[in-house]
Design goal:
The protein is mainly alpha-helical and about 200 residues long. The protein has 7 helices and 5 strands. It has helices spanning about 5, 25-40, 45-55, 65-70, 75-85, 110-135, 140-170, and strands spanning about 10-15, 20-25, 60-65, 90-95, 100-105. A hairpin with a 6-residue loop joins β4 (about 90-95) and β5. α4 crosses α5 (about 75-85). The two termini are about 25 Å apart.
């Protein structure tokens, strides 16, 4: 293997202990592509990149230095992105044992957690909108419009609860790969997602 290809490929082991190859450039392209998709959907650009990098990490956990190295951004940019992600309940912060360094980790069942937090937002919006409709007068054009919006959020909230319950039932029927790369393992809530984005050379930064 050439030195160039060695730099662009990470050595991994499958469930049987055999080495596996991971193309770091391909992983990088995935991270940037998914980050771009989230940015187009309205998420902050740097927060999208940090989230995608964590999603593509085997442990779903990285330090600020690891994120800065992987994404080629400043520690300040990492800090701003992580602050946003923690506020919207997409990332948690934890202290490394025996160290003063923080690690940033995706929550278990990240999408469930994210949508569950939106449920709380919908509740607040619905209450505020219903107050607004009463203030404006529910039979006025503006009041009717706001009342309909509140009714939509109430409907969405009730449907979301059932949707999450059905997802839990459906997930039990899936035979997804284990987080450590073993084939045939069943998904659990403690499972990380994706593959490591940064090279192992930056893991201890």
């Amino acid at each position: 293997m050439s030195s160039e290809s060695a730099e662009n490929t990470e050595d991994r082991k499958d469930a049987a202990g055999a080495p596996a190859q991971r193309d770091a450039e391909a992983v990088s392209r995935f991270v940037e592509r998914f980050a771009s998709d989230m940015t187009e959907a309205g998420m902050q650009r740097m927060a999208s990149r940090v989230f995608a990098a964590l999603l593509a990490d085997d442990d779903a956990s990285m330090t600020s230095a690891e994120l800065a190295l992987a994404l080629q951004i400043s520690p300040a940019a990492v800090s701003g992105a992580v602050n946003y992600l923690t506020q919207v309940s997409m990332v948690g912060r934890e202290r490394e044992p025996g160290s003063r360094r923080d690690r940033y980790r995706l929550h278990n069942e990240i999408w469930y957690t994210t949508f569950a937090s939106r449920d709380q937002v919908l509740t607040r919006w619905e209450r505020t909108l219903r107050d607004g409709a009463r203030t404006l007068g529910e039979h006025t054009p503006a009041g009717a419009r706001i009342a309909e919006t509140a009714a939509f959020f109430e409907f969405l909230q009730s449907e979301l609860e059932g949707l999450m319950a059905r997802w839990h039932d459906h997930r039990k029927t899936l035979d997804l790969p284990a987080a450590d790369g073993g084939a045939g393992g069943r998904y659990t809530s403690d499972e990380g997602a994706g593959g490591r984005y940064a090279s192992d050379g930056g893991a201890d930064t």
